[in-house]
Structures
1.
Amino acid sequence: MTHSIEVDMLSVFAGPTRLMGPVSFSVAPGGTLVIMGETGAGKSLIAQAILGTLPGALRAEGHITINGSRVDTLPVAERAAMWGHELATLPQEPWRALDPLMRAFRQVTESYRFVAGHPPVQAREDTAEAFQALGLSGAEDRLPGALSGGMAQRVAFAAATAGKAPILIADEPTKGLDAARHAKVVDLLAKVPATGGTLLAITHEVAVTRRLGGHVVVLRDGQLVEQGPAKTVLSAPADSYTRALLDADPQCWPHSNPHSAGDVILTAQDLAIARDGKHLIDGFNLSLKQGERVALTGPSGIGKTTLLDALAGLLPPASGHVTRAQGLSRHAVQKLYQDPPAAFPTRIPLEKSLRDVARLHKTDWGFVLRTLEHLGVRPSLLSRRPDEVSGGELQRISIARALTVRPSVLLADEPTSRLDPITQRDTLRLLEKVAAEENIAVVLVTHDRHIADKWADRILKLAK
Amino acid sequence: MSNQSEMMIDAGVSGAQSTLPVSRMTGLALLALLAVAAIGGPGLIGGDPAKQSLLHTLEGPSAAHPLGTDNLGRDMAARLLSGAQLSLSLAFLSVITAGLPGTLLGIAAAWFGGWADRLLGAFADAVLALPGLLLVLMLAAISPGSWWALYAGISLTLWVEYFRYTRQRARIVLAEPSVEASKLLGLGPWLLIRRHLIPEIGPGLLTIAAFGAATAVTSVAALGFVSVGIRPPTAEWGVMMTELLPYWREAPFLILQPVACLVLTVLALHLSVGGPRRP
């Protein structure tokens, strides 16, 4: 039978170095293939090799057959001619892939007009239909910057599928989306095979794999770890790495030990906050006790980050009060950030940043080194700059940096949402351990309700 | 995404990064040479740039006068060195007096924001609205031929660039989460500026400074050439060009010398900061 995509002994090389492979797999029309693995495992390289968009320095070897014809030997121009017609891609973080100066409706109309080749009137009708079907009514005249993450994703989806390509490649489709939108996008993708299309999805999230099903390929450091039907791989993984990856899914975490809370150290009374004149949250109350772990959840854009800023004293509340317990130092409230590299001065070595803090707070350098060791950070990393250290390591270094000032409260703003699942679990475990040892209260902002359930002592849900 | 490919490209670049590109090396070497010439001045060759000898005018290079003599029999080498001294010291001083207040005001505007930012911004825009040359000409008219008028005029027009660049960049840098984190950790303004701002805007400021210095050198020469700036008999490259222009047919190598000096200086300054830079 003819497969939609058939890949035989595909490897990707950079010069003489093998970055990925060899992998072999095939998907039939109406089938789903999910490629799983952590950042840097080479997942995107497979998609790029299939599309023919590998960066110039890289080279693919092996056979790639699409809809029965071999493509890896074709010249670039002929492969490009397949884009939109036979193969469509949904890019990572689509709000960056849309033209920021073109209104949503026109972006999609252009696809119908020029990729699908419909006459202008019909292209507009088709676009209107697609907007209707995807629940985008009302967003027609918005610029991409004014679209929410989920809407931008659906606009990109409409534009990508306008050419009715039978194969859709989705690279990390759920990156940067909150829980509700996450589910919607995955549902949207699940419809592709149901209507006879072929879906190739790349993800590091077990939950996405579970929902999409089909055939699963697990990669680690460019090596094929295992592959098979989703049911088998997810329920009875053959490899220990796959098992670790599955265990790292927040749904499978054990519940954290509840921590006996101490005295109240931070209270928010009837707090209302606004940013840039926009009213965000009203009547928020919180009394935070020593050593307590609180999860703060809510849809994107509701003002979780702004609320943390108000709790940290960085933003004056519109009304109400934030009160700290007496005797708390000025630096007793510290923050952890979503994007670890953005939380450090970019161009100086990490050691300098840490030494600055230690010196200002008269903390012994030995204490800092012990903390780092405790968090499993190699001291040799400190000579590097923030962008030369992995996200997980950097987040641990930022925890160590916060501990240097001996805080009582840590406000963590989605500290692990950009980390891989295994790193995410390890980082949150460490944070839990450290908080228990030092009796630090932690407020964790997260959009993953499983993390909130399993990790926190109590959950605060913000709703519109 | 393609982490490996980025890593690989990084590794490929880092080898070349440890050594400066050839163009920058050339620029820096030329700059060092010019600095030696400017600091040493005419004393380097023991000549006197003002001593006339009407018996030896428009002579070619000889042992006594390595670059020949001009229309009044003055030693060209000594005059060029003296001109270098004047132009480069003026460029150096105007870069400092324009760069320092410009940068500090830019940081202040970004730091305080609000009305301070608007006031400083409006002032900078007002200066920018005035053609730079006009300001220099006005000052030159008040005090003709004075070195100070040139210096003040050039500094007053150049500071706006530093101000605008610093304000723009500092505003972005100061809004980064890393600055917020450092503030929460108790870092004071001085450390924030040193750790966050200076490493971020330093390279850009250096580029502006080098280009500004080149602008200053050419402005001085241009004003000298049209007899508005430095007056004869002071040895200044622009003035020398004016003086030697009538003799271009008899002694073309003479007029070419101050022109070559000017070109080399601007080239050295531009090359020294050019080349590929890490984003």
Note: Chain A has 15 helices and 18 strands.
2.
Amino acid sequence: MPKTHITMKVNGAEVEGLVESRTLLVHFIRENLAMTGTHIGCETTHCGACTVDIDGMSVKSCTMFAVQAQGSDITTIEGMANADGSLSALQEGFRMMHGLQCGFCTPGMIMRAHRLLKENPQPTEDEVRMGISGNICRCTGYQNIVKAIQYAAAKINGVEFREAAE
Amino acid sequence: MIPGPFNYYRPATVADALKLLSTLGDEARPLAGGHSLVPMMKLRLATPEHLVDLHGVADLKGIRREGNTVVIGAMTTQHELLASDEIGRSLPILDETALLIADPQVRYRGTIGGNVANGDPGNDMPALMMALGASYRLEGKSGAREVAASEFYQGAYFTALEPGELLTSVAIPVPSAGHGYAYEKLKRKVGDYATAAAAVVLTMAGGKVATCKIALTNLSETPLLAEDAAKAVIGTSLDPATLKKAAAAAEAIMSPAADARGPVEYRKHVGGIMVMRALQRAAGRAS
């Protein structure tokens, strides 16, 4: 099949590549750009491990073709640390609250939580849970993921994080 | 899971999209949000030779009020419906339903046009469109036509869309102020299609139901307008006996498939319960 030349911005840098039209965005990111932080879980739009941020939207990159991302502005987990290399509030939250066990779902969780907190900087616990309902974790039971996101929200809002009584 | 090869097109206008679809013929498919079609392509259950991506067509986006009608461009996403003040004010049942579709990521991409045009009996918006008396604008090479949602669905994945036609917008008459509404959807988990679901739009006068529309999702090969069930509640205060009568009338027209969501009897039974719950919740919201 003929290939199409595409360009887009990924984590602030202009990138380009030659792709078949059927190449999924997640494969372009992992294989052409060699950024393997974005994971492939179910490949069926259910698990959310491949979530990236595209033009201000959380998108499952296994369900979009790379050619469709022409000209877009993408952030992946590799673009989440602060400019000085320190952990962003969300990354710190997942570390401090033990928001991961095997870590497979974590890139997708953080990318989804990133957009959730941009749209709703002070979510309730229910809103956090509904906000990450497109991301599946098979280890944690979600409790600590929810806390990690609440920790990040508190940090971003400059208030002290208090864990809800259990 | 990688789809079969195809040629990709990204037209910028409806006219160009229609021209492409008619030139490329039967092996071309329009691509909206892609969250039904792309998974089907990965499984090779769909193998279009040409994909006409509608994301570049700005005219297919947006929500506008035209008198007493809300017109929604086909490429408007579920996320955009949820963010719209106009929808929240005049058609809150769309918000309630959009929140029950898939998950946040899918709602950023999934479109109203794709949802209503695909003809998947599990999609939630078609029943709503029937209950609201909506119509679809279908554009083809030889012009445009309006088809009522209640006339659009012919079978699972079979609709009134002719080859080469595009569904470009949805027109919904705004229900009267003070109307009651509810969409009750039973599903096994977040993101699932309905085991059974019912949409109700009604008005009340003096504690009694004045007007009522009931429509059902995933309880037949097409969405269903439950006209006898709606008739059964007119003039009543939705007492328990009336609710049971309405549920029985709705169950009489259901013919769900037996699948992983349950056997036929179960799905009809819970379908009746969805009707009763939606009626009660809608009445509670009406003023």
Note: The first strand of chain B starts at residue 7 and ends at 9.
3.
Amino acid sequence: MARFILIRLLQAIPVLLVVITVTFFLVRLAPGGPFSAEKAVPAEVLKALEARYHLDQPVINQYFSYLGDLARGDFGPSFKYPGRSVNEMIAAGLPATAELGLYAMCFALLIGASAGVIAALKPNSAQDYIPMSTAMLGICLPSFLLGPLLMLIFGVWLEWVPVSGWGDIPGDKILPALTLASGYTAYIARLSRGGMLEVMSQDYIRTARAKGLPEWKVVLKHGLRGGMIPVIAFIGPAFAGLLSGSFVVETIFQIPGLGRFYVQAAFNRDYTMIMGTTVLFATLIILFNLLADIVAVWLNPRLRDLYRSGGA
Amino acid sequence: MSSLDQNNSPEINSTKPNHINPSKSSAFEEKGSSLWRDAWHRLQKNKMALLGLVVMVTMCIVALLTPWITVYGYEEQNLVLGASPPSAAHWLGTDTLGRDLLTRILYGSRISLAVGFIATAVALLIGVIYGTVAGYMGGRVDAAMMRLVDILYALPFMIFIILLMVIFGRNIFLLFLAIGAVEWLTMARIVRGQVQSLRQQEFVEAAVSIGLGPWAIIRRHLIPNTLGPVIVYTTLTIPNVMLLESFLSFLGLGIQPPQSSWGLLISYGVETMEEYPWLLIFPGLALSLTLFALNFLGDGLRDALDPRAAKD
Amino acid sequence: MAPCSPLLTSDPSRPPRFLPALFCIINCLLLFACGNGENNVTSGLASQTLHWGNGAEPQELDPHIVTGLPEHHIIVGLLEGLVLKDPATLEPIPGMAESWDISDDGKTYTFHIRANARWSNGDPVTSADFVWSWWRALQPALGNLYAYMYYPIKNAEAYATGKLDDFSEVGVKAIDTKTLEVILANPTPYFLQLLDHYSMFPVHRATIEKFGDPSERGTRWTRAGNFVGNGPFILKQWDLNRLVMIEKSPTYYDADKVRLNAIRFYPTENVSTEERMFRAGQLHVTGSLPADKIAVYKKTNPQALRISPYLGTYFYRINTTVEHLTDKRIRRALAMAINRQQIIDTVTKGEQMPAFTFTPPNTLGYTAENGFAEDLETAKALLAEAGYANGEGFPPTELLYNSSEGHRKLAVAIQQMWKKHLNIDISLNNQDWKVYLDSVTTGNYQIARAGWIGDYVDPNTFLDMWLTDGGNNSTGWHNDEYDRLISEAAPRAKERTQRYAHFRRAEALLLDAMPIIPIYTYNSIHLVHPNVKGLPSNILDYALYKQMYLSEE
């Protein structure tokens, strides 16, 4: 297992390099520079700005000097926010996004997986339809709808929780976490129901039942293991995807998170910020996918041989 | 809808047999088609699934007939009237520019259903094949293929969309492409996870031992056995894709006003949900209805196609 | 189908009842959160803390770098220029300068700086501070987009564009520590109006030099704790994307008149959220209001709604180099076939004024004559004259706008009006902001949505953009007579009436050629809590914090 992890971490280097390279050149292809503004920018000001951020040099030189800075852990200055470095902005935004994502994923896993498992125990009955329909609401109510709706009901009408903010007023983290969780809840509920149904008809479950184990033990001990495999495959990228996925929720609830930067940087053509968030995002993707694979192996012992023998 | 079936049915047709002895192809096909018929019989017994099927077919027919059954034009404004609640003249009311909402929902369904099904079908096709091959091959091939998925995940989506828009201009087919290109990644990971665990099971080993080639194994044994999670994920992807379309359309990729889609209608409805709630409720109901119908249909299909269900 | 087997059955073979338990937990969480009866509006009243919806995260707080309204709102609390404006009349009133003299030829201004003007670290504010600050603002390396605000000053433009290296030739001089002399290139009647724009604010030399080179962008001098200003407030807290808080400054010369203790600025990007924050008592003032909410507030809470004319025009640019749009008759026909009042009533909804001129009416006493009228018959006739009777054969034309709900609605409405009135089909195209800017500046469009907000209260800020080489022209339209009137005749005019006469002639030329279609004059639309006092409405949306306070009276 250690070897498997090590190999995967080594593989991450070329992956990151490809992501960096492609993104670096891609962003410079997009029309509209970082400094274009509603009022025309005088030529001499533009020249000064480009010189300041080394955009006047050949792109290939910019690329290598960026790689050099990156190797030293320096993401460079933000173009949009002149006084901020990308490192600083990531450091400021990541904690809120991570916290929000963590809460949301916990909600989603707990509610989604329980709903899915309960539903799978008795398919096509009320015990199936009721939890699943509830979970499904999460997709019918996308976050750009659910967020304002919750805000209106609990923030404006009932005045139970603040309308927006993050850590300023007690209770202001509840609505955003629920909003972000809803979509994932539905996915997880569906996937775990499917996975459980698949597993519960497997021979080893029959064997376990035949041995006289109580049903709940069969479900929790044997069923969950296999039934969660699709959920795990989904959760890896989903977790990393929270960075971009939380954009809508962060905007609606005015959370000082990274999701806003990630999307807005593209619109602002804030090259260094795009690069910084992309590198971070890529790293997270790689790590969480690796984590998902490790958990999948742990859930499915038979895969262990595969990893022990193969170079994967 | 139809394209989804066409993509799946050949595989389903040929692959529902027990896993042990698929060597005689003529007997195999005969049995396969009878199993497909079995599945259809089982589906018919599932009332919710049948209802879902009826709803979906009705929606598709109505969408096709829209230009002949609507009284108003989707672009026809009545600025003097403005937003008005449901009435005899406008059954679902009018939007802020005085356009008939029912007409706009019906025209929107053409775009939403087309985007939902075509983009999902693209994602399905690529994701399933890619994931199965990666999961089956294992080792270096799997590693390389999955690292490519990591790379594609990590590239900044917004920049990609902006570039597509600039290079090709607005185009509905680009919309399918852009959405499909994103959605297949998670599909591939889910399928790969399934296949990896299936690969270790006895029936696959048995198939290898009797000398079946990898393609045959993938087609006949692996893909059919991943259908459960795939169908589930597909039913979740369709509404998601419809909402993603609204985001991209808002940015200028895809459809242009005065055309509309459900996702766009909903996102505009959210803005005025307190003043003109019908502008949110009716498009929301249309999307929810589709989603629930798809889900029950998906669950029914999953259950009906479950290779092991036949033994019960 | 099996009979209902609810989750409540006590079959031991069932798994524990997660689901109901979880819902209970969530409900409890929600309940725990309730009961904070005190909101920002009520707590703010006692502490004289103003909660301000500021629209966006400020890019910077360096007055010589920033360009936006959110930054403006914060910086005018932290720094003060030579003059201020009376919010009621917009006429200049003393700021850092307690008085000033203007020479007879209108070219030399002598400012007398207050003896008790101090920086927040106790240093006196001197004329040398202004000379140094203005030198800094003109450093090309700083990338100051508002350097052109200095161009009325002698040789400022030459220095800023690198044609002149010696700053001592620029017309700004410290006569003694408290006397500043400014020499202009031409008599510029609106010069005093420029001085309270943040780009002309002084900055604290020692602080800036402490944190880096004066012409380096984005050093840490603007951070809370580092910032040294001369305004009524000091920077207390600046959390990225969360909050900027300023607190009353004890060193401000007028400190005993400042009644607010603190202002908290929130980066309210989402206008719907901002409105809900206002309703929930989290904000005193909002930066805007969604169009569809205006009618609601008129009915339910009219005293909170502030609608007032604003110094800006919403218009469409026409690319006059595009084959069929070179014809003036077509451009005029398009302008005449729009029912502006209907658009205002159903789309923008903010009581905006239909625009038939480019400069908003009554801009410091200047009102241009209407350049056209809404007239369908004439519009049809003009189109027919141009060879497209009843719109037949009209070439495919595209209307470009940047992605935004408001622009979309307006474009859709106008698209239909042109279809209905002139029978021409115009397609719509929306692009993201930066692509849109690129398309407009490179002339890669046919008709494009635009807006222009005046930098200062003078017709010049609206009219000099249509000069042949105007950086913001982008329509391909040019007229020698127009150029002469704006850049030669008007600046030399002795009297305001004479100057305005030149402007009127120029604007008549512009509107006759119609490279632009004026749609409406902007209104500023805010929500203001009735507790907020001392915030009069004016066309610049200009607030003087030292006059503001919170009271239930």
Note: Residues 92 and 257 of chain A are 8 Å apart (CA to CA).
4.
Amino acid sequence: MASKKHSRFIDWVNGDTAEKVHEYKFIQKTVPPHSEQAHDEVISTRKARLFNISYEISAVLVCVILVAVLLFTVFNLPLFGSAGNPASNEVAERYLEKGLEETGAVNAVAGMILDYRAFDTFGESSVLFIAVGCVMILLMRDKNNISATEDSLEENERLIEIETNDPILQKIVLLIVPCIFLFGIYVILNGHLSPGGGFSGGAIMGAGLILFAVSFGIDAMQSFFSIKTFKAITTTALMCYATLKAYSFFMGANGLETGIPLGTPGAILSSGLILVLDICVGLIVACTMYGFYSLFARGDI
Amino acid sequence: MLPWYQNIPFACIFLCMISGIMMPLFKSGKAAFHLTLCVSLINAILAGVLLYFTAKESIRFVYVMGHFPAPWGNEIAAGKLEALLALMFSSVMALSLLGGKSSIHDDILEPKQPLYFLMLNLLHASMLALTYTNDLFTGYVFIEINTLASCAIVMARDTAKTIAATIRYLVVSLLGSGLFLIGLVLLYCITGHLLMPNLQEKVLSLVSTGKYMEPLTIVAGLMTAGISVKAALFPFHAWLPFAHGGATTTSSSVLSGLVLKAYIVLLIKLFFSVFSIELVSALHVNDILFVFGIIGMIYASIKAIREEHIKRMLAYSSVAQIGYIFMGLGLGTKVAVIAAIYQIIVHAVTKPLLFASASRLSEVQGHEKSLYRLRGSARTAPLAGIAFTLGGLSMIGIPLLGGFMSKFLLAESAVLLASPRQWAALLSLALSSVLNALYYIPAIIAIWSPSDFMLKYQEEGKQKKNITYSVSAFSFMVLVVLTGCASTPVSEIISSGLSLLGGASL
Amino acid sequence: MSDFLQSVIAYRFEIGAVILFGIGFINLLLQKNLIKKIISFNVMDSSIFLFLASQGFIEGRIAPIITGANDASLYINPIPTGLVLTGIVVSVSVSAFFLALVQRLYKKYGTVNFDEIIMLAKKEAE
């Protein structure tokens, strides 16, 4: 490896590499075929034009009425920012006053979404899972959505990616990515203690993964994060979430104790399941974010 | 400890969810198909058991999702009505899977089939959750799951046309969810609750004090509008024929038969468990549903008469049938809502039968879809022909079949009402039945009358055996006849189930 | 008049949210460009989140991180915040899905104008 680098350096000094790289030094822009006339042809018939106009008028009308009605409603709502609103009732009070004791979470929002109303949050993680599934159906390469020429073009791009290592970018990314990850992990692990939690921390870690993939290329990324890892992590994390919550729902509904210690409020290892769930959610979100990027960019993970 | 059967709703939802989550791990579509089928069958059996126990003890129980009861944590609730609807969702899901098995194999690429079943499983879970939920925000989350998953099963066929249809569907659905969400937010502002029992208590106390009446009216309007947009009520139906007509058979059956119904079930719960049917009538929300329901019934039938593509014709017929349901809700009495729910069940067993039969007919005739080219296909595949005929006759409203009973119940409930509404309802029922006959009977005649196309494909078509279809068509036919003959026990269950939903005191 | 102005100022967040909702709604209906449709969908959803978040706010109180006393009168209402969180995740998912649909159509037809796409798809079928 070292000798190869060395020889490349010598080649570079001697000016020998230029020709070799030149073979595929350009990225061919793939603009799909598009007929210029299409735009003019769209609304050609009189009937279609009439329909369009009536559609636009009725849409504007509906929207104006809707906004007017909503504005009227707004003025009839409880006053903004006052303490006596119907919304700040016994429910909010209980979350704030008893939350610490019942869920062990210092962050009342985390306590609410991952304990009191955990079923919603489970649904929400599933939405993310479904979305990534949809994007996979649409964009994962197969014979429906990719042609041979596109395939060869993408192969070309991949080769360019390998060839054009940008040392400044890579060195800096190597410095930054661990920090991003550390911060992401911090946000996830402190989800029950401070603002943050699985979703925000996961998004941060996902950004780190994307940054790494952008600067080091797909091959480096796939050496530790392939489609298999992606599937394994997301399904395991969501499955873990589902089974843990199913256990806790079942025990709760049947009036049994879960036997999960809540710990001392304020400590990292506290608040029962919330920490574990935050970790699961964080993993799902991080993988999903990277998955979105990768599927959009290459049609593969 | 609760009685053991009270764990069933929770178990059903989580069973679907967990099997859905497992799907990406499967390599082949076959295993995924079998697991999905198993899960829906198990769920159907469980829902049947639940129906038995809830009907026997005539109760509606609340199941706390977690350790915190009503105003604090999430809850689901189940009674007779929910159990019956869940039974319908799960069994129709299983039968649609069977009926569309071969077209799933043809339409969807093998490596993506597990993802398709992932969507179906989560769709199933979301429909069950919408049926059982006792919390409006959970309702919103599962509406979104439902939206995404149903769009996904439309576009799973992966042609440019279905993708364009999916975009239409998605845009309309997003408008609907936007309206529903803003309605929910406003409702939260003025009540401070998200769980249905507490909401109802608060809403009724607001009504009795007369406070926040304007926002309350608008909330009712917005939430109803949001759900009706998603359920393809008349002016918002334009996406449906393309989405339902273009998707693969199982998707079309599930979308037409179940997904639209899941939203309406939530609407009914909204009417009974959050507001009350009297309040809804007092706020005149149902009048809008009534008017648009009637227009939808007539307009969609006329469109269906002019449609050549068999699946799109069936999709337009779905719009018309949704119109019946909304008309029933719009009548604004409990009897009419019972008829509307009966119509939900009848349509849920009839439309998947029609879609599966249409696809079987086109399978034996070289995958043609236009009615003209399907001439004589019933002679090649007689079972599919009989099934299509039976389904079509039921849609028209021939006695002894399900469609007749639901129309009869709707008419019966309309008779009890005051004059203009009564006449409007009865006339539109009669007119739309005639219109239904005008497109189903030519279609039925067409598939039975011999043609060149039939001769061309006959030998080849007869080779194609499809046992799963036969099983599913046979069961659906039994269900169609059952809903036509045994309406009394079913409507009794619906009626007593509705009273348990709440909203008694105003 | 000053009463009206005062209430406009008092309800500024809600009014802003409603106007943004209208902008998102109308563009979602009228834009032909699919990317702009996605943007308007996001505007619409964000306006609802703004509305929801403003409902939780209570003058003079702090974020619901309970480090001090267990007294509900110190903190804002945590429920809308949690609901917004759920809503955001949903809207991210929908945007991703929508973008993927648009990417596929763009690859095929080379345009993001929905009318053109429909027309080209129809032509293709003929």
Note: The radius of gyration of chain C is 21 Å.
